[in-house]
Amino acid sequence: xxxxxxxxxxxxxxxxxxxxxxxxxxxxxxxxxxxxxxxxxxxxxxxxxxxxxxxxxxxxxxxxxxxxxxxxxxxxxxxxxxxxxxxxxxxxxxxxxxxxxxxxxxxxxxxxxxxxxxxxxxxxxxxxxxxxxxxxxxxxxxxxxxxxxxxxxxxxxxxxxxxxxxxxxxxxxxxxxxxxxxxxxxxxxxxxxxxxxxxxxxxxxxxxxxxxxxxxxxxxxxxxxxxxxxxxxxxxxxxxxxxxxxxxxxxxxxxxxxxxxxxxxxxxxxxxxxxxxxxxxxxxxxxxxxxxxxxxxxxxxxxxxxxxxxxxxxxxxxxxxxxxxxxx
Length: 328
Ligand code: SAM
Ligand code: SF4
Known about the structure:
Elements: E1 2-3, E2 9-10, E3 12-16, H1 45-57, E4 62-66, H2 76-84, E5 91-96, H3 105-110, E6 115-119, H4 125-132, H5 137-149, E7 153-160, H6 169-178, E8 181-187, H7 204-214, E9 219-220, E10 229-233, E11 240-244, E12 257-260, E13 266-267, H8 278-283, H9 288-300, H10 306-313, H11 323-326
Parallel strand pairs: 3-4, 3-12, 4-5, 5-6, 6-7, 7-8, 8-11
Antiparallel strand pairs: 1-2, 9-10, 10-11, 12-13
The chain binds S-adenosylmethionine and iron/sulfur cluster (SF4).
């Protein structure tokens, strides 16, 4: 089992399969996109599966496929299939913006994917365009519908932004009245791929206060171990509410996760700057045993929390990296 020096067991890997995306969410990347990772710097399918296989042998039983937009990667569906066949993996999930996802839903079901995180910051078509810079709202709603019809658990991810989607908080909470979805409100983080610093206006407690103002019957429910989300519910509603304190970082003490970027960088904390490049290690001819050793050593030094990670390793230029490069 992978354990860090604070005794935390690491069993959750978030694998970003590509940095490119077919949306341009304002909180994630500039209008013109990013300086994309060059094709030969991207891990190949074989390299990704090899890394995942090493991690599952080390006790990782949960993998999330993310990006960029995962389905923008060529043949992403066959990569997902190959990862789904790894032994010891009990939970494979995906985070997607829903633009290209609908066509793959039956296959995702076949591969045993039980849960999909769907990003949706607004229920208003025009605001969707303002936030994502693309007119694709109806396609995301079709994907939501398709996932629910196939009985795949859906968690809707909503980044809460001053002057952009505050009027959507209550309609999104209302979605949980009749739909079996978890709507999770996320504090905005400073990972937007440009030099504009995010000032956090809507933290966990402000979002909670806002929801309680409309739904005083809101109750706190149990948070599973290592969850990044604080769980709530309106008793008579089918779905659930979550608030993710991604900026205030109050969940780090229980962290069980690590990230791998599309180019193979192992990040033991979201807020840390660099990390060892496992793709380069593979391409230099390292054996699985040697890679295992490198991984164990890196994880051992996982920072205590996001604040410590930021202080120790980030330079001013790195702090504004996009979530699409890090793997959200
Ligand atoms: N493209 C996919 C999507 O949007 O679902 C997966 C990658 S995206 C980087 C993963 C998650 O990160 C999304 O739910 C998105 O809302 C979130 N995210 C991106 N930038 C963020 C930021 N600056 N603050 C908070 N969450 C962010
Ligand atoms: Fe693309 Fe996801 Fe970033 Fe939006 S949040 S720009 S959908 S990677």
